[in-house]
Amino acid sequence: MRFVVLGAGGIGCYYAARLLAAGHQALLVARGEHLTALQQQGLTLKHPQFSFNEAVAATDVIGLMRDYSASDFDWLLLAAKSSATEPLMLQLADWLNANPELLILSLQNGVDNEAHIASVVGQERTVGGLAVKIGAHIIAPGNVEATGVAQVDFGAWPNQQQNPTLQSRLMALAEVFTHAQIPNTVYDNVSYALWRKLVINNAVNPLTALTLLNTRELTQHSVFTHTVKTMMQETGRAANAEGVHLTEADIEEMYQLICGFDAIKTSMLVDRLKGRTMEIDDICGPVIRGCIKAGKPATTTELIAALLRNAVQ
Ligand SMILES: NC(=O)C1=CN([C@@H]2O[C@H](COP(=O)(O)OP(=O)(O)OC[C@H]3O[C@@H](n4cnc5c(N)ncnc54)[C@H](OP(=O)(O)O)[C@@H]3O)[C@@H](O)[C@H]2O)C=CC1
Ligand SMILES: CC(C)(CO)C(=O)C(=O)O
Predict the structure, then answer these.
(1) The complex's ipTM?
(2) pTM of this prediction?
(3) In this structure, are 162 and 197 located in the same domain?
(4) What is the mean pLDDT of residues 21-27?
(5) Which of 199, 304, 287, 200 is nearest to 241 (CA)?
(6) Which pLDDT belongs to residue 61?
(7) Quick one: 112 and 215 in the same domain?
(8) CB atoms within 10 A of CB 101
(9) Ligand 2 atom 4: the closest Cα is on which residue?
């Protein structure tokens, strides 16, 4: 299968390496020193169960539009930060719409990426998705370190019932992922999967970025572990206000999952340490808005988001 990975950083390079190692095509779209390293030295990726060190095809967005046509690819995997989704989609709109067969799968955190994608290419080409149980970061240009079982959960956006035509393409992708050692689940209701993952991200990403603790230190901390739980419950309240049914059992499952997961630096903590823009609006924003809609504000999420913004001013 032919993939283009748009925003090939930690997450994008991990999945691209898995697909390349399984014999598929993947063009990496990146920029800056990381792109230069990919072009000149190839991609080096280390994971406890997998390593990759090979030349790769890599370009930037301008090179993608100039040298390739959308019909050169079957799938576009979007792995840039959520704040880049809307500008990237708008920049690529004409290019993307020259081939209606090209489907777009978001691997990003947050629950708003798919609406931005659909507003440019249409719902019938929009696949919601998530990188689950993975930590993956650029440690030097062209070098990525990853950990975790690194699953992908995905499905027709906003759900199979409202977007029924994609089923055979989704099944074919699931088969390719499985063959490439990427565990995966296809959801009938991917909006549920997106919000369930947001339960973890809203609870641990801003708090780890604020405290500089890893996920294990955070969830084992006598005070912060309660804050994690509260922010998870606020995410559940927001989801329900947005029409996505999350139960107490979902919250508990997400809490146990992150407590038992590897001790990792979240992507937001890594962004803070690198002095990069953090996904605060994309992760906390939907929770704050949803809880206002529910009539009971997300006071803890609001506080942690405000403290974090204040800390990096
Ligand atoms: N990292 C992790 O462990 C996890 C991350 N996620 C989610 O996955 C998504 C990706 O995260 P992550 O892999 O950490 O992000 P990274 O910043 O490592 O990767 C994104 C890459 O896209 C590049 N990029 C952004 N805009 C452009 C552009 N216009 N043209 C070319 N390249 C561009 C960035 O370059 P530049 O650096 O110059 O901006 C960067 O190299 C996020 O939504 C994150 O929340 C989910 C699970 C775990
Ligand atoms: C918390 C974690 C690692 C879960 O996969 C994540 O999504 C992130 O770091 O952004």
Answers:
(1) 0.98
(2) 0.97
(3) no
(4) 98
(5) 287
(6) 98
(7) no
(8) 10
(9) 133
**CATH number for the domain that contains residue 302:** 1.10.1040.10
Per-residue pLDDT tens digits for 123-140? 999 999 999 999 999 999
d(CA 224, CA 216): 11
| Same domain? 205 vs 95 | no
Ligand 2 center–CA 69 separation, angstroms: 33
Q: Kindly give the number of the ligand 1 atom that is closest to the alpha carbon of 135.
A: 3
CB-side neighbour CA atoms (13 Å) of 141:
13
Do 128 and 220 sit in the same domain of this protein?
Answer: no
Q: How far apart are CA 65 and CA 234, in angstroms?
A: 41
Question: Pick from 188, 215, 240: which residue ends a domain?
Answer: 188
Query: How many other CB atoms are there within 10 angstroms of residue 97's CB atom?
Result: 14
To test the pocket of ligand 1, the residue of 4, 5, 11 to mutate (highest count of ligand atoms within 8 Å of its CB) is 11
- Provide the domain count of the chain: 2
Nearest protein Cα to ligand 2, atom 9: 266
The set of residues, in sequence order, having a beta carbon less than 8 Å from that of 194 and lying 6+ positions away, is: 110, 111, 114, 128, 130
Domain extent for 231 = 192-311
